[in-house]
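hey m, so remember when u said the tokens were messed up on ur end? i reran from scratch. heres the input so u can diff it against urs
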Amino acid sequence: MRSSTVKRIDQGSVPKKISNKCLARKVDNTSFWQRLIPLPWSLWPSEARLLLALMLFWSIAGLFILGSASWWMASREMGDGSYFIKRQMVWLLCGWTIAWLAISIKIRQWLKISKFCLIICILLVGATLVFGSTINGSSRWLILGVFRVQPSELIKPFLILQAANLFAQWKRIKNGQKLLELSLFGIVIILILKQPNLSTAALIGSLIWMMALSAGVHFRSLIASASLGASLGVYSIVRHEYQLLRVTSFLNPWEDPQGNGYQLIQSLLAIGSGGMFGEGYGLSTQKLLYLPFLNTDFIFSVFAEEFGFAGSFMLIIFLLLVAFLGLRISLFSRNNYSKLIAIGCSTIIIGQSILHLAVTSGSIPTTGLPLPFISYGGNSLISNFLIAGILLRCSLESTGLIGGLKVKKKLNQIF
């Protein structure tokens, strides 16, 4: 899927085609929008082009899905049916700006600042336990003026980067340093469990485990860490009554249909009502204040009711395509850091999407995980756009035309 231009760069020569395009860029003959990207569009790998198109489609389609899911509730509770759509559009603009910044910054620079940003985010997560606003039994939010910040969402991209920093050189660093770096990840998971937020803690633990597996960490260490993580999850469920009730209601939601089983029952009714081809866009009945959290944690239920099995199946195919592109980007990356970052970015976006679908369909106990690029929420959008932008940057650097030293020197010799 890589062009012959890129292959010739790999062989150590700079073809005339590239030099002409770089020269055109140098003398400002390119269009305005092409000056905003670090590499001319014609030299983008096919994986990066397709991934960018899918992200654009995903975010715009998500806006329409959110509009259908939230219009009735917003009209009744806020007095404006477009209340959530207007705010989501603002966050979309911010998200795409952040994605552009992520694409424009070298992976090496991201890796340099990752530890500092991770520590700041850890302090913010810790602050939620003291100063956080408690919503639905969990203290996940910090109120900063007119903004509500959810540090457990914003920490995800920096966890990916710092995990890549660690596991890419796992065999070369001393055990003491390994323990120190792993302790940061442990602190993050424990603090998030204390909020309590079991779903996000499980997602982060799975992310770090998957990156360690991809880096070739010894299998016995992976088994031990998975056992420890499972033990922490069981301890959190036993200690927090509302989490235990969610697990028991998941096993038999009809035992308490008006209480703990209400959310799952309404979600299953919505999905089942969709049939093969759905009720049609905007025609969901469960969103008429029957289904709780329909614009965030259960938005897929509304989607499934309106688009049916066929639409849900297409969504799964879409997620598989994004996962395939993430794997391709990882395979084409030129160093272990970029390979692991691509694996981590793909894992967090696709993993969270699959967990959301599993919760709403009753495959796992009810948890509070938004559907990336679709559910309402600025923190989730910004985090996911930053992750997607870093993944795109990994793809652009796989060409060897940006981000490296050798090719940069070759291109500079032209002028």
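this time it looks ok to me. DSSP finds 17 helices and three strands in the chain. if urs says something different then somethings off w ur setup not the seq
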